[in-house]
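Deliverable D2.4 — example input (structure tokens):
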């Protein structure tokens, strides 16, 4: 976390320097102070909003949160544009025709950033079906698994309409199994928003031939009453696997659900090693684990498939490229030794209501025998 904060401080400092040269350096003294002061306050408040909410235990009005969250996406995108143009100038590839007054350059880049973020907002609000295939010799009959993750119910990034659309998309495909791969909730007290939005009724409308299962994500352990939240999920006919496995006989497969490691530092609970509840036998073993960085333990314990979320595929471009160095894969399917890892980009998101590096995903993962084409 401290490295994340350090990176954010560097980004904010870099952005403020560029905002000064773009919009303030040619102004009079008092105008310069007023404009730069206003810009600095907006930038700092935007990036500091979430830490202040957590430290003070408050919840800002939804409109205020939306404005500041959107500002974060805008300023991050604008900072990337500034970095990109700085690199072009450094290697002498910046076209001379583009070299205008700093303010003109600034307004053009700000306009582009705003347009991209507006597009990213509408991209975020529209669930998109994505199809994947995984081959394994243990698969007897073709299995269709619907995966949604990172719902973040309680934030402005999830709405009853959006989740209802995702459920409709799932039901149209009549999956054999549905997995919710963690981060169902968002914020310290998501239960009131969950109840008011009727999310329990929406989730209970999911139709699956062999049940709907969920695992915890890190955000479940950020809530003030984990048990209350999980009980709401259970009442929606969703079975929560917390460091336990279940044998799904029609699929000839075990589904193993892991608690997120956040429970160690947020709830003070011990992390249970996967081997403690990994079933024996030669049946297909599917591990549902919110964080894809648990793939090493899944490989070591003979898992055939791991289903994860967590990454949002960076959420904002170009963070998705950075995540390639942090996870085996931040999105999609990748073989890690003898285990196939699938990572969803998530249906919802945390923070900025803008998605420019992926889609709001309803994933359909088809398991086929290894004789089928992957």
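Example output (designed residues):
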């Amino acid at each position: 976390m401290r490295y994340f904060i350090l990176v954010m401080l560097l980004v904010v400092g870099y952005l403020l320097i560029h905002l000064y040269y773009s919009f303030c350096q040619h102004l009079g003294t008092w105008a310069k102070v007023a404009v730069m002061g206003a810009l600095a306050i907006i930038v700092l408040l935007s990036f500091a909003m979430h830490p202040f909410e957590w430290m003070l235990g408050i919840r800002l009005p939804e409109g205020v949160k939306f404005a500041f969250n959107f500002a974060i996406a805008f300023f991050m995108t604008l900072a990337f544009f500034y970095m990109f143009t700085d690199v072009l100038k450094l290697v002498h590839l910046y076209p001379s025709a583009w070299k205008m007054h700093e303010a003109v350059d600034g307004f053009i880049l700000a306009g582009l950033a705003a347009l991209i973020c507006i597009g990213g907002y509408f991209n975020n609000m529209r669930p998109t079906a994505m199809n994947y295939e995984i081959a394994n010799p243990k698969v007897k009959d073709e299995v269709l698994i619907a995966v949604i993750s990172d719902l973040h119910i309680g934030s402005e990034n999830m709405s009853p309409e959006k989740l209802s659309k995702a459920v409709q998309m799932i039901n149209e495909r009549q999956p054999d199994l549905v997995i919710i791969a963690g981060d169902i909730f968002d914020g310290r007290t998501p239960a009131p928003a969950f109840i008011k939005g009727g999310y329990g009724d929406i989730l209970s409308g999911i139709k699956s031939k062999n049940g709907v299962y969920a695992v915890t994500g890190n955000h479940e352990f950020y809530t003030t009453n984990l048990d209350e939240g999980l009980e709401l999920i259970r009442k929606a006919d969703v079975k929560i696997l917390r460091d336990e496995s279940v044998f799904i006989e029609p699929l000839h497969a075990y589904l193993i659900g892991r608690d997120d490691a956040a429970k160690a530092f947020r709830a003070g609970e011990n992390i249970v090693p996967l081997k403690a509840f990994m079933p024996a036998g030669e049946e297909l073993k599917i591990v549902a684990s919110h964080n894809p960085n648990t793939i090493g333990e899944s490989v070591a314990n003979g898992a055939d498939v791991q289903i994860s979320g967590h990454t949002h595929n960076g959420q904002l471009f170009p963070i998705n490229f950075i995540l390639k160095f942090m996870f085996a894969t931040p999105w999609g399917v990748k073989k890690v030794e003898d285990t196939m890892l699938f990572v969803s980009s998530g249906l919802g998101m945390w923070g900025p209501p803008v998605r420019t590096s992926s889609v709001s995903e309803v994933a359909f993962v088809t398991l086929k025998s290894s004789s089928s084409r992957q």
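Residues 78 and 109 are 7 Å apart (CA to CA).
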